[in-house]
Structures are given as C-alpha cells and as structure tokens.
TrEMBL record:
<keyword id="KW-0963">Cytoplasm</keyword>
<dbReference type="InterPro" id="IPR005227">
    <property type="entry name" value="YqgF"/>
</dbReference>
<dbReference type="InterPro" id="IPR006641">
    <property type="entry name" value="YqgF/RNaseH-like_dom"/>
</dbReference>
<dbReference type="InterPro" id="IPR012337">
    <property type="entry name" value="RNaseH-like_sf"/>
</dbReference>
<dbReference type="GO" id="GO:0005829">
    <property type="term" value="C:cytosol"/>
</dbReference>
<dbReference type="GO" id="GO:0004518">
    <property type="term" value="F:nuclease activity"/>
</dbReference>
<dbReference type="Pfam" id="PF03652">
    <property type="entry name" value="RuvX"/>
</dbReference>
<comment type="function">
    <text>Could be a nuclease involved in processing of the 5'-end of pre-16S rRNA.</text>
</comment>
<dbReference type="GO" id="GO:0016788">
    <property type="term" value="F:hydrolase activity, acting on ester bonds"/>
</dbReference>
<keyword id="KW-0540">Nuclease</keyword>
<keyword id="KW-0378">Hydrolase</keyword>
<dbReference type="GO" id="GO:0000967">
    <property type="term" value="P:rRNA 5'-end processing"/>
</dbReference>
<keyword id="KW-0690">Ribosome biogenesis</keyword>
<comment type="similarity">
    <text>Belongs to the YqgF HJR family.</text>
</comment>
<dbReference type="InterPro" id="IPR037027">
    <property type="entry name" value="YqgF/RNaseH-like_dom_sf"/>
</dbReference>
<feature type="domain" description="YqgF/RNase H-like">
    <location>
        <begin position="17"/>
        <end position="117"/>
    </location>
</feature>
<protein>
    <recommendedName>
        <fullName>Putative pre-16S rRNA nuclease</fullName>
        <ecNumber>3.1.-.-</ecNumber>
    </recommendedName>
</protein>
C-alpha cells in the first residue's frame, strides 16, 4: 500500500473512524489513538518490536477493536529536515505495515517527540521506570497530535508539510 500525503489519508477515512499513531523504535513501537473527531490523540500502549507479520497482526487487531481506518507513522527526519537512513527505514517499514494490514498510511515528522515527552515527564516528577514504561506511547501521541493539528489548522502542500494558506476549504 502506498504512503499517502496526510490530507489524503484524512480525507479517505470514513466518518467516525480513528487514526492510529505509531512511533517505531528498535525495541518497542509506541501506539496512540485519535478520537473519532480526529481532534485529540491519546497514548494507547506499546507493542514489542518484532517480525513485521506479528506487529502487523497486533496493529490490525487494535484497528479492528478501536474502529481505526488509517495509520500515521512517525518519520525520524534529521534535525535539518534531511531524509537519512533512519527515515528511509521508517518509510520502508510503514509501507510494508500498510501492505500487511491493508490500512492506508501517512508519515509525519517526529523530530524531538521523545525528547519533548521525556522532558514533560521529568517535569511531572515521574520516576525513570515510569517514564520508560510510558514514553513510547506518549511519543506516538505527541506525533499523532501534531499531525491532527496540522491538518485542522493549515493547508498542506503536496509533500504533506504545512503551508501558510489557512485552513483547507477556506478562502484567504
């Protein structure tokens, strides 16, 4: 299944379906879930990173159970916005996951998501153990929320990045 620009993914969802946000790491995949209005992302949990077939089955089961119709996968771009080996690996994984689950996929910039989440958890005085248990799902929610906000607040260009044109469907 091809990777779609985020606005196309959102437009393809039947009314009332959710999006799943995924933050693929080397050991765990953080999972987040949007609400049915596509306004709010919440941490859902994490999946142990393993073989694609097993991970796809878990993601598909979550999608079926929660009424999700698409995936937003975090894209680890370089700090300068460059598309390096980690971004290529995430894109390849996202495409294979989309094929395996039959769900449409969009990629979204996840730069600094884990750092921002860790910082917030430290400020909330969470212990290291509690942070470790929650950071993957929280990072997935952070990335998914960013994607939801971008499609709601601004038009996106052909590459899926925000433009300054205002909200989709509005003039001026």
């Amino acid at each position: 299944m091809p990777v779609l620009p985020l606005p196309d993914l959102r437009a393809s969802l039947p009314r009332g379906q959710r999006l799943i946000g995924l933050d693929p790491g080397s050991k765990l995949i953080g999972v987040a879930l949007s609400d049915v209005l596509l306004m709010l992302a919440s941490p859902y949990g994490s999946i142990k990173r393993g073989k694609l077939k097993a991970n796809a089955a878990e993601v598909a089961a979550i999608a079926a159970r929660e009424g999700a119709g698409g995936l937003v996968v975090g894209l680890p771009l370089g700090m300068d916005g460059s598309f390096g080996p980690a971004a290529q690996a995430a894109k390849d994984w996202a495409m294979a996951l989309g094929e395996a689950t039959g769900l449409p996929v969009a990629l979204w910039d996840e730069r600094l998501s884990s750092s921002a989440v860790n910082r917030a958890m430290i400020e909330a005085d969470l212990t290291r153990a509690k942070r470790a248990a929650a950071v993957d799902a929280a990072a997935a929610a952070y990335t998914l929320q960013s994607a939801l906000d971008a499609t709601r607040q601004s038009a996106l260009d052909a590459t899926g990045q925000p433009t300054l044109l205002g909200r989709p469907g509005r003039q001026g």
